[in-house]
Design brief:
about 160 residues, alpha+beta, six-stranded antiparallel sheet, 3 helices, about 20% strand
């Protein structure tokens, strides 16, 4: 991927952080946005670039996850999205997309239009989905409805 597109991608993420996620308590690290709750429940929004990106394009998707800290002394660790006990791609929580969705950023991409789409997705789908988990008890409550069925990775032990 060329440097100009990488710069556009980074600018897009910085703008999302500055204009939306920072005020919601998310901290940015690379292409990850993490929010830490007092009980050790952690939320992540991850912008994953495709490993097949070549010259002239930057393909990316969005992963969302919940991570449960075992050790409260390390509550602010930089866990990775793939380490989350509950995780999904954006299509798992949004009706906007069928199947796996990848955005494509090129030299001719209308960045403002892409930004508006991502902002709407964040405000109407991703953040409301994450907001339903204000503590570990909420994970149990939502899990009992079956809505997390295909999102659980491995065993999830939630101490309350």
């Amino acid at each position: 991927m060329d440097k100009a597109l990488d710069t556009k991608f980074k600018e897009l993420l910085s703008r999302i952080q500055k204009e939306l996620l920072k005020q919601k308590g998310f901290k940015k690290s690379g292409s990850n946005f993490r929010q830490y709750l007092p009980d050790g429940t952690c939320k992540i929004i991850n912008f994953q670039k495709s490993m097949f990106n070549g010259d002239g394009e930057c393909r990316f998707t969005i992963n969302v996850g919940l991570y449960f800290q075992k050790d409260m002394e390390n509550i602010y660790s930089n866990f990775k999205e793939y380490e989350c006990q509950i995780r999904t791609r954006v299509a798992g929580i949004s009706q906007r997309y069928v199947g796996d969705h990848w955005w494509v950023l090129t030299e001719v991409t209308e960045v403002e239009k892409m930004y508006a789409e991502l902002l709407t997705l964040m405000q109407e789908d991703i953040l409301p989905w994450l907001d339903q988990f204000s503590c570990r008890r909420d994970v149990i409550r939502v899990g009992q409805t079956g809505k997390l069925k295909n999102m659980i990775r491995g065993s999830v032990y939630v101490n309350i």
